[in-house]
Amino acid sequence: MPITPFINLKKQLAMSIKNLPPLIIGGAVFNTGYNENPHDLSASKILEAAFSKGFTAIDTSPYYGPSEEIFGKALKEISSKWKREDYLICTKAGRLGLDEFDYSRPWIRKSVLRSLERLGTSYLDLVYIHDIEFVDEPSIIGAVKELKLLKNEGIVKNIGISGYPVDFLYKIALRCKSEPEIGPLDAVLSYSNGCIQNEKLFEYYEKLLVDCGLKKVLNGSILSMSLLRSDATLDFHPASKELKAKVSQVAKDLKNETGVELADLATKFALKRWLFDTANQAGATPTSLEWNKNCSIVLGVSNIEELDAAIGNYEHVKSRAGEAEDEQLFAQVKQNLGDSFNETWRSGLH
């Protein structure tokens, strides 16, 4: 079933992140942590296919190794068809390495200007201060103030913060709202907290929008950085051995008992809960759910097959195909996770 484009691709307002589509193409996979040779991935083909189906936004970061350069090259390759005003670029600033951060105002500005060059653009639609839980609060506020200045200058259209612990993201977003030099942020991105193993982000959805005055709340890493799948979890994952073992067993049991791959089910779960269940569904029909435009998901795909699978899952959920069966499996996985459901790990200072 073809997807109706979510926006008028030729009349998109660059400064409006309300135009962010439900699925945003994530750039973390264009890094050696996820793929041994990220330059060999067909980034231009992925973006061309995604954009043609209405998913006209990318998310990246300098922390993701060559990701910005790879995306920049890919965007240049498809520029004859896709002009800059036809898509949105989201990136981040402040995180340099695994344990290296620079939230100084000069560096935030330098990082943003470098991102412009790498991505081949004169403006960025959304920039986050990256992984704020690793840095003290005064430094975070200073970094966000510099982003706000860049926004005032028109270099950055929207600003936000990203990280793992949702309660801390909420605290800082609320503080920014009361800061005279900042005001309400435009967006917050959390990862691994809006998935079948951890629903913390869902609990904070209305608080982030209403209390903090956000325009968008974004959900990243809905497979929890490779945790929620049958294959082995990637080495860098910070979860406890016990959590990894439990999820591995749940995935194995699910596959043996139902033939369903945990990664597919987990994708459907996050799509359903985040993009659709957060809406009131007043206009829903028996064969179509309404997407909540306050919410988007950042989804990393390494090839066209993964992109097609993601879009297929989106269409499956939106069309309500197999809804009752999916809900039964969601409940089964949650029950089988036991005490590991909603288990988190320490990140940075929190």
TrEMBL record:
Chain ranges of the NADP-dependent oxidoreductase domain: 22-317
Keyword Oxidoreductase: yes
Keyword Oxidoreductase: yes
Keywords tagged on the record: Oxidoreductase
GO molecular function: D-arabinose 1-dehydrogenase [NAD(P)+] activity
Family matches, as Pfam families: Aldo_ket_red
GO-annotated cellular components: cytosol
GO BP term (any one): dehydro-D-arabinono-1,4-lactone biosynthetic process
Entry-linked PANTHER family: GH17980P-RELATED
Name of the protein: D-arabinose 1-dehydrogenase
